[in-house]
Structure formats: C-alpha cells, structure tokens
Amino acid sequence: MARRGVCSLDGCDKLHWAQGYCRNHYHRLRTHGAPTAGRAPKGAAKQCSVAGCKNGGPFRKGHCNAHHRRFLRHGNPTAGGPTRPPRGSVLAYVHAHMHAGCSVPWPFTTCGAGYGQMKVAGERVLVNRYVCEIAHGPAPSPEHEAAHECGNPSCFYADCLRWATTVENNADKLKHDTHNRGERHNLAKLTEHEVLQIRELEGSASRNEIADRFGVSYRHVYSIHKRAAWPWLE
C-alpha cells in the first residue's frame, strides 16, 4: 500500500511512515517515547540525562553506560543502591573496625551467602579471609576456611575468626543453626517428614512405587533407605 503525505513533525519533509511520522521519528517514538528523543542535536556534546552525572560515553537512550545498566535492571537509571563508596574507604573501614567487636555492621557489598566482599590491589576478596589472615597468619592450606565463632557470615571481628577445615566449619554451622542441609536447601524436593515416611515404607512397597509417589528418583529413595542421604535424620 502506498504511503501518503509527509511527517507531521515541524521541519521534517520526509515521507509519512506510521502514526503521522516518518520512519526515523516513528522509530524514536517507539524506542524512547517521543519522536524527537534519543539523539542530541548535531554538533552538541553528548551528556547523560541524569542530573549531575559526569560519566563519559557510550550513551544509550539518553543515559551513560552505568545509568543505562541500572535502568535495565531496576527500571530507573538512579536505582540500585547507594552511591559507590570513595576509593580506599572500604579497606580503611575494615582496618578501623576489625578489632571493635562482633556487633559492628558490614555496610558494603556481600556475596550471595552474606559474606562481606571488597577489592584489595584490584582483586576481589572475602573480608573474613582477609581479616583472618591479618589476625592469625596465612591459612594452613588452600582448603582451610575462615570460620566464624558467632555464626554471622558478615562479621569481620578478628577475635571471632579462625582457620578451620570444611568439616569443622560445617560443624559450626550446625551449632549456630545456620546450615542449609536437608529441607533448608533450595534444591531440596523432600521435607524431613517425607523422608521419614520413605524410610517407613521400606519393604512394604517397591522403591519405584515410592519414587513415583514422592516425585523423586529411584536412586534417591535407595540412598535414603541406605542412610547415604539425610543420614542425620532419625
């Protein structure tokens, strides 16, 4: 079908494409919400649309790269948490508070498990390992972990930390009730009550029938019956 007329935007004499605009201005309308948005005037210096931003390019949808990533993640170019702390301030905070007590909060970045993180000489490290090494020397082996006496993963109090094996550290998690074994694990398909039921059904139903009933594999049922899975549960 032939297109009729020209773009309705003042000063544009290009052929009409859709919704009263030429192809260029219609594309800007769909992408940026306005037919004139998305591009600075020819010869003008590019600048992020977020007030006070002094970041350089590249620019996307009127934002610098950093604010554009926040826009994609949070729907708002200024969302996503507090302003990044000044360079060196995180390390200074650690050294100023590592002997101040267990109740000192960790206000900076943490990993998924809740352990504090920071950069030292350009390398990302766990804060508890960094402090443990300062307070107690290097780890006895690469397999040793910086264990907490208090059970709080974000704690970086030097007197709360010690080098421990994985087995010792897991024992601490049981003592502090911070473990994720059993039904606390995010991949667990069974509750403790269901595991006990599976054990009670041993001998009275086939393992295939039990597996179908509880929605797990034959191998998992076998492991439960042999106490290889959920061995602590009685």
Task: Write up what this structure looks like.
- The protein is built from eight helices and six strands; from the N terminus they run αββααββαββαααα.
- Helix content is 32%, strand content 9%.
- It folds into four domains: 37 residues, no CATH class; 30 residues, no CATH class; 88 residues, Alpha-Beta Complex (Homing Intron 3 (I-Ppo) Encoded Endonuclease, Chain A), CATH 3.90.75; 39 residues, no CATH class.
- It has 234 residues and is α+β, with helices and mostly antiparallel strands.
- The strands form three sheets. Strands 1-2 form a two-stranded antiparallel ribbon.
> Helix/strand-derived class?
alpha+beta
Number of helices: 8
Rg computed from alpha carbons, rounded to a whole number of angstroms: 29 Å
Gap between N and C termini: 76 Å
Number of domains: 4
Main sheet record = 2 strands, antiparallel
Instruction: Briefly note the CATH topology name of the largest domain.
Output: Homing Intron 3 (I-Ppo) Encoded Endonuclease, Chain A
Order of helices and strands: HEEHHEEHEEHHHH
What value does the average pLDDT take? 80
Helix coverage percent = 25-40%
Please report the total strand number as a whole number: 6
**CATH secondary-structure class of the largest domain:** Alpha Beta
* CATH architecture verdict of the largest domain: Alpha-Beta Complex
Give the DSSP E fraction (strand runs of 2 or more residues).
Answer: 5-15%
Strand order of the largest sheet: 1-2
Question: Which stretches are poorly predicted, pLDDT < 50 over at least 5 residues?
Answer: none
Morphology = flat
